[in-house]
Structure formats: C-alpha cells, structure tokens
Amino acid sequence: MKLLSIAIPCYNSEPYMRKCIDSLLTGGEDVEIIIVDDGSHRDQTAQIADEYASRYPSVVKAIHQENGGHGCAVNTGIAAATGLYFKVVDSDDWVKEDAYQQVLDTLRSLAGGDKALDMLICNYVYEKEGEKRKKVIQYRHTLPRDEMFTWEDCRHFLKGHYILMHSVIFRTRLLRECGLKLPEHTFYVDNLYVFEPLPYVKNMYYLDVNFYRYYIGREDQSVNEEVMISRIDQQLKVNRIMIDYLTEKKGELVRNKRRYQYMRNYLEIITTVSSVLLIRSGTEENLEKKKELWKYLKEKDRKLYAWMRSGIMGGTMNLPGRGGRRISVRAYQICQKIFKFN
C-alpha cells in the first residue's frame, strides 16, 4: 500500500500539467500519482499522461475517461487510490518540494498510530499572475500545531480562512466510508469535497508549512468572476446541495458545537458568494434566482435562515432596491480586502 495517493484531474491541460506532475514526483515511491484524463480532446493531455505512466510505472497511473467534469475526475481518483491518504492537486497547481517532504514525513509518523488521522491540514499560497507578493493562507491562530487534535480544540475560524481542497489531505477510507460522490459536469464541487466528509472527521493534524501553490491568472479559470457568473447555475446547484446536507444532518451535527458552527459559517460564505454574483450580473432573471435561493434556505430550515439573514453578510446581501444592491457589492469587496478571501 502506498502512503499517499494524489489525483490530478486533467482536461486539456497540456500547457501546465508537466510542472504539476514533476513537482509531485519528488515524493518518491511512497506516493501514487493518479492522472485522470477527463476526456481531453484539443491537445496532448492524454499522451502526456501515458508518457509519465510509462516512465514512472511504479508511481504514476494514467486513467482515461469520457468527460464528466472535475467532480467526476475526483471520484475516479478516489476509486482508484491505493494510498492510505488522499489528496487532489489541480493540473495548473503544484507543490513546494521541501514542504512536500515534511508532509510525507508527518504522514509516515502518524500512520498506524493509536488514533487514526482523518485529516491533515497545511497552508496554501496564492500564486497570482502579476503579483510579486504571495498571499499565504495559514491557520496558526485557529488550529493547534504539530499535534493531533479534535474539533473541540479548534478556535474560531476567520472569514476567508476556511479549509479548502488546497489545504487538506483526507484518509482515503474515510472518503469512501462517508459515501462522497461529487456531481458530474458541475464546477465548484471542491466546496462539497471539503464539506461533506466533515461529520466523519474526528482526528486532525495541522502542519504549518506552505505546501500547495494555487495558481490564479488564467482568463478561463473557474474562479474568474465573469466565468463564475456565466456558470451561476452550477454555483447555485452546489449551494443548494450544501444547504440540503447541513439541514438534513443537523440533528447529528449539533452534537458537536464547534463542527456545526464551522459548517454553518462555511455555508454562509458560499451563500454570500452566490448572492453577490447574482447581484453583479445585473439581470432581472438572476435577481429572481437570488430570491429563490434565500427562499429555499428558509423552507429548509427557518432557524438557520433567520441566523444567516440577520448576520452582517446575509443582511447586506438582501438590501432592497438598486441602491441596496450597490451597497451589497461594495460591502462584499470590503470584506474581500479585510478577510483576504478570493
């Protein structure tokens, strides 16, 4: 069994996937790299995947499938993984070698211990095109360092400092046991990836190293605001799935106050992002979709709706009229600057 399986979802990734794969190969034989070619057709992605699998047969697997989207590629990676732990690295991102070795050393030291490690958390770095100063997302003021801990040991998470796909490594069996199945042909499913397994996570470990390098700058990137608005229905689909999940499991989740608060606050951020994108689009159709989203939340859980609606972000997102919508967008921009979220 390998120590760590890393899935790389690839779709027409020829221009940048080599940098990603090369950075992961420095992990050596303890690592399994699963390149999932998700129906690429315009470039040499499939051939590059096969080339690496041929050159490094004991480390690299190449899987080719019909296009199913990012979530489908992650599902494929989880199903194929033989490693004790599992990570997703997007094909335009990469990892820092020295931090990578520390991650592997930590996983080795914790594997087979009295307590099973469910989730390892590390820092990630925004590699934003054109910016010399790199923004690091770290958890030093929120999580205990260099020790196993539980939800009760976590302090309050700052806005924008939530646990994202970039920062997390899960125990592979946990992902399978929780029944995680990301929707196909849907963007923004990374939010579900770091949300739905949480009720099953007991033991965590925070390694304070700048491990994952998150590239931002391509015009067609899914986090580009114009792209997000054009794909708003997929954002809303993910948002509703998160509402369903939190409300349906609420009876179980509230038994652990810290975990429920974290998941509730994360849902608040996602709902705020959905709302502001719908406002920014400026169309009557999308303004109606915003009303429908908040109505959906209210019908699912009146108490959760009241808490979110009375908060600063929820209240600001629902100010009436054109002037209110301008304030909503401006407030969101201020929050971005203060809390440093993308």
Q: What do you see in this structure?
A:
The chain has 342 residues and is of the alpha/beta class. The chain folds into two domains: 213 residues, Spore Coat Polysaccharide Biosynthesis Protein SpsA, Chain A (Alpha-Beta Complex); 115 residues. The chain has 14 helices and ten strands.
CATH topology of the largest domain: Spore Coat Polysaccharide Biosynthesis Protein SpsA, Chain A
Distance between the termini: 37 Å
What is the CATH class name of the largest domain? Alpha Beta
Number of helices: 14
Q: Biggest β-sheet, characterized?
A: 10 strands, mixed
Q: Count all strands and give the number.
A: 10
Unreliable residue runs:
none
Mean pLDDT: 91
Looking at the overall shape, the CATH architecture of the largest domain is: Alpha-Beta Complex
Topology overview:
Blueprint: E1 4-10, H1 17-25, E2 31-38, H2 45-55, E3 60-65, H3 70-80, E4 85-88, E5 94-95, H4 97-110, E6 119-128, E7 135-137, E8 148-149, E9 168-171, H5 172-177, H6 190-193, E10 204-216, H7 225-230, H8 232-248, H9 250-253, H10 257-281, H11 284-300, H12 302-310, H13 312-317, H14 321-339
Parallel strand pairs: 1-2, 1-4, 2-3, 6-10
Antiparallel strand pairs: 4-9, 5-10, 6-7, 6-9, 8-10
Helix pairs in contact: 8-10, 8-11, 10-11, 10-14, 11-12
